[in-house]
Structure prediction request, 420 residues.
Amino acid sequence: MDHLAHGHPRTTPADGHPATEEGHPVIRVLEGIREEVADLAGGVVADYIPELAHADPEAFGIAVVSPHGRAYAVGETDRPFTIQSISKPFVYALAVEERGLDDVHAHVGAEPSGEPFNAISLDERGRPENPMINAGAIVTTSLVGPGERGVRFEHLRSVLSAFAGRELVVDEAVYRSEAETGHRNRALGYLSLAGGVLVGPVEAAVQDYFRQCALSVTVVDLAVMAATLAVGGVNPLTGERVVSQRTARHTLSIMSSCGMYDRAGEWGLRVGIPAKSGVSGGILASAPGAFGVGVFSPPLDEAGNSVRGVAALGRLSDDYDLHMLRTPAEPPSPVHSVTRSGDTLDVRLRGEIDFLAAEQVVSRLAETIDDTRVRTVTVELERVSGFSDAARALLAAELHELAEAGVDATVRDPRGVRGA
Ligand code: GLN
Prediction:
């Protein structure tokens, strides 16, 4: 039961093994939040999709997955519910992966609508305002290939399953219930077709959209899906790359501006974790470079967001400092050590060298030009885990400067992290 707590990242939640034991410090934190928020009254269970009205208003679960694939869950961790609108960012990610950002956004905007999820919200070019409202999500679904109905849905299902790290299946009762009643969504589809942005036929797109919304998940699934985006597109439990790092970033961007319906501004201010909510009561939140979180509690506020879910994520963000715009106390230093012997300076670097880190490194190297005692510099990359393109360019420019100044500089890169 506890092996995930100790970090064997290849175990999937399909095996039912998130850490849940009481003594674990992370579980204690989550339990504290759950207890505090569980008493929160208010909110209404959605019933416009008749089948959703059967949800238990008391059901409540929270799950968190770390970038290393450790999963923690409290409350009703295996209760299934339909993913609903939380499917939207993942289908958006797939469309971007397949067609590129510009092509997708020729069909759908990227502006918060400030309106409810089912609004008739089209911009001056006939595009839905963004891919997180229904109109935009139906268009996004229509953009995913291949066009044929059954084939496209299976493709969507398999990609969402890769995000979750297990095979997701459709809750047929919820699917049928929405397919029989979802005429407003059909209308949104036809408006988008009329606007020239939906790839028809409308009924095929809407049916696949209803099916994607009816995929059955647990809070642990949501947390794994969120963590996959948070770490840049690689599922931390299965190790599978699901989408590119860039696509993951685009998806988090859209979630952070448009994920919480017309509460995006308030959410950014108070919680600050890119998130997506759904009418069945789930919220998925993805703290970039950090945790994936899933929360489930069916009663919704007027904006359509889970009352307890919003409160739990607010607490989590505040108490554990997960706001994406928090400022680090001090930038991490990429310089592990600097030693001089004779006229040779040995500079050892560590960690991830991005633009910020590289700026520190080249500033340090530049000092050697004026230091007449130093004629040779070695830069040791043994402890470096990766180099960004920008960092590589900056270091190359500095090496050139050193050579011009007559300093003999070499880079030792035994693991080839600096790339070509
Ligand atoms: N399937 C739902 C609908 O289209 C999804 C909406 C939601 O979760 N906000 O109405």
Summary: Residues 84-85, 117-118, 134, 178, 185, 213, 278-279, 304 surround glutamine (CB under 6 Å). DSSP finds 14 helices and eleven strands in the chain. The two ends are 44 Å apart (CA to CA). The chain has two domains: 50-320, 335-412.
